[in-house]
Amino acid sequence: MPLANRRGEGGEAPTWIWYPGDFEIWLGNIFNNRRTERGAMFPPFWKQDSHYVTVEFTTNVELEEDEIIIIKAEGQYNFAIDGQLKPPYTNCIPKGGHKLSFKVWNQATPPALFISGKTIHTNSTWFVTYEDKIWIDENGVAHGSGIYVSAGSWNFNSPDTPPSQYRLERRELRPVSKEQIATAHTLYDFGREVFGYLKLSNQEGHIDVYYGESREEALDSEHCETLDHLCPGHREPGSKAFRYVSVRCDNGSYDDILMDYEFAPFNPAHSGAFRCSDDELNRIWDVAAYTMDLTTREFFMDGIKRDRWTWSGDAIQSYLMNYYLRFDKECVKRTIRQLRGKDPVTAHINTIMDYTFYWFKSILDYYEYTGDVAFVREMWPRMVTLMDYVLSRTSSTGMAEGQPDDWIFVDWVDFPMHKRGTLCFEQILLMKTLETMTLCANLVNDTIPNADASCYRVKADELRNKINQTFWSDEKKAYFHAIEMAEQHANHQAGEQVVNKQITKFPNMFAILYGLADEEQRREIMQSVMLNPDIPAITTPYMRFYELETLCIDGRQEQVTDEMKAYWGGMLREGATSFWEKYIPSETGTQHLAMYGRPYGKSLCHAWGASPIYILGKYYLGVRPTKPGYEEYEVRPNLGGLEWIKGSVPTPHGMISVSMDRHHVTVRATEGTGWLIVGDQRVRIEPDNELTISL
Amino acid sequence: MPLANRRGEGGEAPTWIWYPGDFEIWLGNIFNNRRTERGAMFPPFWKQDSHYVTVEFTTNVELEEDEIIIIKAEGQYNFAIDGQLKPPYTNCIPKGGHKLSFKVWNQATPPALFISGKTIHTNSTWFVTYEDKIWIDENGVAHGSGIYVSAGSWNFNSPDTPPSQYRLERRELRPVSKEQIATAHTLYDFGREVFGYLKLSNQEGHIDVYYGESREEALDSEHCETLDHLCPGHREPGSKAFRYVSVRCDNGSYDDILMDYEFAPFNPAHSGAFRCSDDELNRIWDVAAYTMDLTTREFFMDGIKRDRWTWSGDAIQSYLMNYYLRFDKECVKRTIRQLRGKDPVTAHINTIMDYTFYWFKSILDYYEYTGDVAFVREMWPRMVTLMDYVLSRTSSTGMAEGQPDDWIFVDWVDFPMHKRGTLCFEQILLMKTLETMTLCANLVNDTIPNADASCYRVKADELRNKINQTFWSDEKKAYFHAIEMAEQHANHQAGEQVVNKQITKFPNMFAILYGLADEEQRREIMQSVMLNPDIPAITTPYMRFYELETLCIDGRQEQVTDEMKAYWGGMLREGATSFWEKYIPSETGTQHLAMYGRPYGKSLCHAWGASPIYILGKYYLGVRPTKPGYEEYEVRPNLGGLEWIKGSVPTPHGMISVSMDRHHVTVRATEGTGWLIVGDQRVRIEPDNELTISL
Fold this sequence. Notes:
- The structure is a homodimer.
- Chain A is built from 14 helices and 37 strands.
- Chain A is globular.
- Helices cover about 30% and strands about 25% of the residues of chain A.
- The first copy, chain A, has about 700 residues and is an alpha+beta fold.
- In chain A, the strands form eleven sheets. In chain A, strands 17, 18, 19, 20, 21, 22 and 23 form a seven-stranded antiparallel β-sheet that branches. In chain A, strands 8-7-10-4-12-15 form a six-stranded antiparallel β-sheet, with no helix packed on it.
- In chain A, helix 4 (about 310-325) runs parallel beside helix 6 (about 355-370).
């Protein structure tokens, strides 16, 4: 048992502890099961895991004198000193060296423990297991040992704030206007998209509440996505996303209306910022930041009105935006843990093959932005078993193909696109996954000796070659979209695999983003695909995230400025107060509200709509880490055709501020060693030394 | 999705349904966590699993008219008709053909559902999944499908008896005598071992209760195994096993004392019975039956005072005894499900390698006695993954060796015996396990096409040969106990595997019982090992179960009669009112109470002590199924040196009665086709036809 009390690392203050990941998995079930569809609960269609119901917490102590401890547990517990069970209510540890063990059982919420004494405190230096495997022979001698891991914890630092009582913060908001639609029928407007709990005071009788992200939705009681029928015994609406609320009380009454706006707190002094010479772009940044704040909750949520689940493909974009906005690393870790759940793996994450691959990539991104190797270590065993699942489903040639129970997402598209067979896009994501496993194995194999990078490296290299051989067209200067089974066809046998000649932006931009394309291929792809008007356009902000990043990598910030103003600016001109799930500029009026065959099915506040946060932080302010956790970083500012830009980017423990106009660049950073790179200039940035260079 | 409403199979009456096994896993946690050690809770040291927190129940219906249903759920639920979510409180299904789906979420207790209508009833014809995997594309079209299995159910047939409210039955018992030990200190004797809840009326102040299976234990407040300190706020003792109760109330008072005896109900008309010309043997049978009744609870329990957990090696004997006593097949299934728990497998069952192997064997036994192939089908996926675990830990030669975190139990022994290295005993159990997998694969592969017997058959045959080659000694006419790593030794390299020359009864008797030894080997083993006084004696009733069975197979019932009277009769002469965990005839007085280095550590009511039930039913009355579920059976009665025997054995839906003296045998059976076999006579038994033959 790897027991060593690393006192100091975990700090001296006591905090609630649990089995790592279990708080998130339990909270995730509450979170995901809050989704409703016109009043009916709507849980996810994938396996919801649960916490380990009985766990043992343990530590070693060395006491100079007897010590009295306060013991709080969520669940029934026992307490053993040096392996000997103590009578209930024992709270005195005799002086000397001792091993303390607490076994806690709780079916409903994660077993959790809080110990506070003069020197003894629960914190992340404690160890925890779900099976101690210690058995007693007929002579009373103990044998065996289970696998212990470092205890999970966060900021539950008081005995009276156990993890099961966690909730976000709230503040009251009032509607900004109201409109009498008919007798006993009022429409309230909260001025912009909000999230929280409607509160009607002095309710009597029956009151019907219809919520809308749009005025049209709130007034369409037959088709709006969320509603509440308030009646005696059911007076407390659940949390909802809305701007408008339509309240009908033909058989009831109420006095006043307001709402508890619910939000994840953040530190404004440790937040990203952006301003530039273009007011529309400033408004885009502000609305994107508000979209991010609305979707940053217990976990990163996709859309706050309808979906309300954690989605890995959406989340990886939220993480990346978050590194340029609030740097809420706890929310990143929570979401990654929650998405992964537990073994056995019975489906891809969210049942979507691409989303499994993004999950791996998100751990690498997290490490690069935070430098937190402890989290990689925590996740490693679950990375291995998820990777085993992936590899157990690859084809004989090592390629990932959708099985009948897999969802292949790629993107919502409006043109015919193959999603079955062997997609180039999925192979590139799998290649990145294998490379991520290789890198992470090397990161953790100091403490996890069986973490073997070589098996993943070999597969990654093989796949890289295979993708280029299979999909790259020297004639088209592009990666083809798919190979698939030939139908009965003149030149092919039925069942034979043939390359489909379709070309889409998806594999081609990921070939650039994930390092498959070499420099020459990159230049060719930009011309033949990314800037080619004959290739079908991307219509979701989801994939526009990657499309704009590709353009930035190619140095086309000026074009990106135009596209942001056209696309995100377009949403603003349509009245958006947060950014949408999908936007088709050619649509008009209520067409913008419809999706999934439903008149208000589209989410008007979708995390993936906030990508300008990321683009402006990383490719205009130009800040990114070059060693994990900003130990080293670079700043490559780019005006993108604007007069001036200025802003700041949070780092693990500080900030990097950048301002630029056509004559000067100024940078100031509070931690790490950076390089300011503009044109041919490359100047070293020292902490707390403001650096200005002329252009 | 294999949906077909097999109406009729599941009956017309509604009953609560859940995900199969989840009720047992949840109940098992409550059961196993009730163990206490001097007031402290004492959970198991292996992983405790939990139910799936969100499951979907579904069925197809064909309605001639609209139908109103009553919906009861344990947990939050939603309801969809033909995949369309319905508003809360929907309870009318329109006429026609429909697919009904209910998704239920419950963290604390298993999600369960009860539907009752004119024609629609929840029962085992419904299907259930923990992930429906049905996703909706951007056009609102549903895709995908999860894996559905038949819903679990039992006898919760009323909307007001949900599974989470299950409890055993109770009746009041009073002490048979009391003894004033001192002022405010009384010792009560309940006359024999009992199990349940002590009840003190009109409690005031503080009352200390010390329980004892013996008078000595109850009076030894410092060392008794179980106790209660009753005080304001804690007035309800948990369930305890005891005969004596010592109550001290120096600072408190009470008026009256009694107990709620708690028991699993059984049907006396469907129970085994045994009487013979020897009164002591009759008392042994009665006390063994009472021992079984005390240990047959929510699950088959090992010892009711101290251990109070489910243990696979103990349970397989309880199952076999139960087939000759109460034929409580539900308790067998519950225990098998609970012991297995869920994937991933992280340890052997109870952490003990032999106990994993017994778990497999117990499914084969269950099938042979009940003919219930549906249960084999239910368990098959978990048999496969547990087998995968076993095979992942075998040596390069295919043999099972204990890993550092495995407990190798075999038996509690009082002589030096190797439990590490490669034990012949464990290989024989593994061989039987592989044969069980072969048989069960063939049983289920009509509905589970990928159940492949051949891979297990090949391994079983290879292992059979290897055991004989490795462990059988033609010189000793016995199987050696172990091969192990050679220490630095004259004739061996360090690290070389060498056969240890120790001979024990364990592998030799299992070679006979599990069909490894051929007829010649069997005769040789009987002489060289089983009847050889130089081979160390077995001292636990646990392994005496198998020892006596071996003697019976060899036709030595007369010797077994003597041994039962000596060993079990010996316990009775020591005052046993239920049979013990271990008995060493040479010990005296309170030596009989001690074990595990504790003065009252020994369990005086241990299921494995009840083996005469099995021996007398199977080898004296001589009844056993020869086709699954007593479709065919044989009766080979044996007087075992007694004047006369008579009794009955329960079968799935009836009884077989046998009586025998030195002149006649009479048999009557209510189902199946049997053969009465005595000496050279072999006579066919027809249902409900009493058959008498002369000897």
